Amino acid sequence: MNSHQKVIAHEMKIFEEKFKDSMKSNTPLLDRIMRYIVKRKGKQLRPMFVLLTAKLAGNVNDSTYRAASLVELLHTATLVHDDVVDESMERRGLFSINALWKNKVAVLVGDYLLSKGLLLSLDNNDFRILQILSEAVRRMSEGELLQIEKARNLNLKEDIYFEIIRNKTASLLASACAAGAYSATGDEQQAQKMGSFGESVGIAFQIKDDLFDYGTADVGKPTGNDIKEKKLTLPLIYTLNKVDSSTRRKLIYSVKNGNNDKQVVRQVIDTVIQSGGIAYAEQKMMEYRDKAIAILNEFPNNEEKAALEELVRFTTDRKF
């Protein structure tokens, strides 16, 4: 067990029970699907960030546990809907909800999870925390739609890329950290500070995901998968903006038309590596990681701060 897990081991045990309770349904089909979702839980990074930021800022309380459950309910809802949109048959090595119960059921399950999260907050008057996390859901939808819009012509500037991942990926982690801090303190400034911390971690996390696409490690998705899906990630954006016009045209043609050819995908990856796209993305990732750690350094040294720093470093050093 890592130190960040040890620091909140007791709190995570309580959270998991409360989270399980928050998903229960009187409808047999729904209850069966909810048990399946709980069984295939992921790394639970977002609830960990909620609990650790609460402990760093003040004390974990019932509002903190509800914030952690809301974050995980919203995150799970988006994953269920994403699998429908992406037509994914697997999630974390197990069958996706849409693979087992078809798209109609999966969409309704995502809606159910969203409504459970909303009611969990509303029934307990956690209005500010609900507002913080509802803002993240709005931004995630906008980020996803902006990515779809911009992916059509493969003409993406770096500032638009960062706008997309700031909304699509980082906003939920930013809101998790802001909600954790607010639940413990009721202090808007603390919530804002930890929101900025979470956003930097979230951006670093997404760039790390981008980099996995150019590696050889088994990370749960095939290498070159982003290229096959015509997703413009930071290493490719840097390369497209750096190479000469002839190479740029060839790269765009390859991604648009040869994205299902393994040899073509390999050539794209090789060009990105040779052009310094990987090194540039790694540098940017470390810049955001260091921004997050700089915010942590404004707090006194304690086990919560050390655990959060370890968790930040895990997001950039992880192998999956």
Question: What's a quick, concise take on this entry?
Answer:
The protein is mainly α and 320 residues long. It is built from 15 helices and two strands.
Account of the protein in words:
The protein has 320 residues and is mainly α. The chain has one domain (3-317): Farnesyl Diphosphate Synthase (Orthogonal Bundle), CATH 1.10.600. Helices cover 77% and strands 1% of the residues. It has helices at 3-7, 9-22, 28-39, 45-57, 62-86, 97-122, 127-151, 158-185, 188-212, 225-228, 234-242, 245-257, 262-274, 277-296, 303-317, and strands spanning 90-91, 94-95. A two-stranded antiparallel ribbon has the order 1-2. The chain is globular and about 60 Å long. It starts with a helix and ends with a helix.
Write out the strand line-up for the largest beta sheet, numbering strands in chain order.
Answer: 1-2
What is CATH's topology name? Farnesyl Diphosphate Synthase
Q: SS-based structural class? A: mainly alpha
What is the distance, rounded to the nearest whole angstrom, between the alpha carbons of the first and last residues?
Answer: 17 Å
> Which H/E pattern describes the elements?
HHHHHEEHHHHHHHHHH
What are the low-pLDDT stretches, counting only 5+ consecutive residues below 50? 216-222
Q: Specify the CATH homologous superfamily.
A: Farnesyl Diphosphate Synthase
Q: Please, what is the average pLDDT? A: 87
Strand content of the residues, in percent? under 5%
Overall tally of structural domains: 1
Largest sheet: 2 strands, antiparallel
CATH class: Mainly Alpha
* Gyration radius, in Å: 20 Å
